[in-house]
Amino acid sequence: MAQGHKITAKQWISRASFCFGNVGHSAFYGVMSTYFIIFVTGGMFNGLEKSVANKLIGLITGLIVAVRIIELVVDPLLGNIVDNTKTRWGKFKPWILAGNIISVILLLILFTGIFGLAKFNWVLFAILFVIIFISFDIFYSFSDVSYWGMVPALSEDSAERGIYTSLGAFAGTIGWNGLTIIVVPVVTYFTYLATGQHKEGPIGWFAFAAIVSLVALLSALAVCFGTKEKHNIIRNSAQDKTTIREVFSAIFHNDQILWPSLAYLLYSCAYVITNGVLFYLYKFVIGKPGEFWIVGVIATIIGFCTSPLFPILNKFIPRKWLFTAGQVSMILAYVIFIFFRSNVFMMDLGLVFFNINFAQLVTVLTLTDAIEYGQLKNGQRNEAVVLAVRPMIDKLTGAISNGLVGYIAIAAGMTGTATAADMTAHDIHTFDSFAFYIPLAFAILAILVFLTKVTLSEKKHALVVEELKDKLAEGNVTGQAPREAADETKETTVYAPVDGQLVPMKDVIDQDGKAFPGKGFAIKPSSNHVYAPFDGKIIFTFGTKHAFGIVSDDGLELLVHIGVGTVNMRGEGFVTHYNDGQRVKKGDLLFDFDRQLITEAGYQDTVVNFFTQPQRVIEFTKIDYGNDVKHGDQVATVKFK
Question: Is the pLDDT of residue 484 over 70?
Fold first, then answer.
């Protein structure tokens, strides 16, 4: 199988380069999304009248919120531009490099306060800020879309793509939380070098932005020179771009997208709002900004533990209870932040509780399962749309967080040169209300929504997939848009997708003791590989990876179902070598599957192949059941309309 192949030096370099790429990429995003607001509220307008400074802070905060929301619409357009890019270096690398260089230059200009222009002409400053920030955000988005968009171009192996994604996420944790660890020491140190004062001054913030920008550039260069795009995969993949309208349509037509999305929105709002103001908590409420680094250390350690722990726990604990446990942990954190923040040990314990959460992983898996649920319920299968929901929510909650952080800073008097000594009881109460009480309510509501409205458990999804399989075999559901009835008779020759012995469908008995439904044939496999049975296009893959739909160039739809009962393995032991929407040729390797793992789990490894629109099939030639075949051997010629 693919997992057993020896990893070459080039593959190690590619993995390491992509991994390092997100260290700088995520750190840069952290500067832009979190610490720039802190700089704006704390240092950008030092020397201006407080009323003018607060107006400019409000303007900048409002602009950032607006741009974040506009991003939801613009990102698919940027993706189309990237997809239509053709250069000798590929389609992604030019945008990664150019996007980083331009956004770095513009960010550094912003961290100078546009060279202190606000002190001389704040109206001109406001106009230029709008232009610069929008330009900056566009070029950063080009880089972001290209970085994550290139994953399918790095490998055709789904397991290898999973490794790239995991490495990127791992590196992102280091980049993001690393900022929390270094921000105060770096800003304070460079402010001291320039002014002799131990505080967070504008020059220190500029030095901090410059250091992170340098890391971001080095990371971009590592991706550009250390990875290689596989042009055949990129050019053969035909995945449609997702619009925000399609996303909302999918949400409101599928209740098991709607309710998990709402629960995640509530969790995400709580998390990003509180995370965005923790610096203010340490600086203005606790009065110990120098201890803020511990926030990043604890978040990093807990993040390293929870991600690998999730699949282990999920084998014994259903997803809904893991989601609930994470939210209860967050609620305990808020209680500590409100009532016990004067105690160092309790604050550290609160940070541990705050970061113990499985909401993101649970949401991704639940939304993935909702793809088959939607296909069964309303005949719509929208993989790209569904998987765009969580990133969209992340951007939306990021916008909300940016807006509230700016508002909290102004409302609680935590702007300019203010210190903890300047805080009044009213200021602290205002801060607590927005930073803790409202997010606490969100965390409680997230639990209620998930427990009462999210019904798509792991067991229910397995039942949904089995019912969907039966309906596909009966022709009651199709793998793609329904075709208009045609009078013309067509022919497609179907070739064996796997080595093994041909057996009739009626001899394949499922776990309920019923014969496998539909028209088609089965093969008792003697190898672990599945190949394309004809020239055509992959139209979908079940989220559990045990089955995929393919349509021939003439329009014959076939579903290849690997094993019986294997839906319960939830993808373990299955590796794809294609992207949904990709055109394939007869004999192309599509799947690796672990026959030993399947049989050890108590399931059958028989590969069942059936037509998902049997009413269109007129006849097919006699199949020589009992004979051994090799992949690529002719099995039958099918006549259909």
Answer: no
CA distances from 249 to 239, 253, 386, 464 (A): 19, 6, 10, 21
pLDDT at 45 over 90: no
Q: Name the residue among 290, 249, 318 with its Cα closest to residue 458.
A: 318
Question: Pairing relation of β-strands 536-541 and 583-584?
Answer: antiparallel
Pick from 62-76, 117-131, 509-523, 608-622: least confident: 62-76
Residue with token string 């001054």: 201
* β-strand partners of 558: 550, 611
Residue 479, both tokens? 């793998």
Range from 394-408, 534-548, 589-603 carrying the lowest mean pLDDT: 394-408
Q: What is the DSSP string of 604-640?
A: EEEEEEEES-GGGEEEEPPP-TT-EE-TT-EEEEEEE
**How far, rounded to the nearest angstrom, does the alpha carbon of residue 24 sit from its chain's CA centroid?**
18
Q: Identify how many contiguous H helices and E strands the chain contains and give both numbers.
A: 22, 14
As a whole number, mean pLDDT of residues 294-318 equals: 88
CB 143 within 8 A of CB 100: yes
Rounded to 5°, the CA angle 594-528-316 comes to 15
C-beta of residue 356 within 8 angstroms of C-beta of residue 332: no
- Quote the pLDDT of residue 233: 40
DSSP calls for 33-61: IIIHHHHIIIIITTTS-HHHHHHHHHHHH
Query: Which of 140, 138, 118 shows the shortest CA–CA distance to 60?
Result: 118
**Which one-letter amino acid corresponds to residue 88?**
R
Query: Catalytic residue among 461, 561, 577, 631, which?
Result: 561
The verdict on whether 561 is a catalytic residue reads yes
How far apart CA 373 and CA 386 sit, in angstroms, is 11
Dist CA 560 CA 608 (whole Å):
6
Give residue 390's pLDDT: 76
Residues 152 and 309: their CA atoms lie apart, in Å, by: 26
Question: Given CA atoms 413, 414, 416, 421 in this order, what sign does their dihedral have?
Answer: positive
Question: Residue 239: pLDDT above 50?
Answer: no
Phi and psi angles of residue 47, each rounded to the nearest 5 degrees, phi first: 100, -15
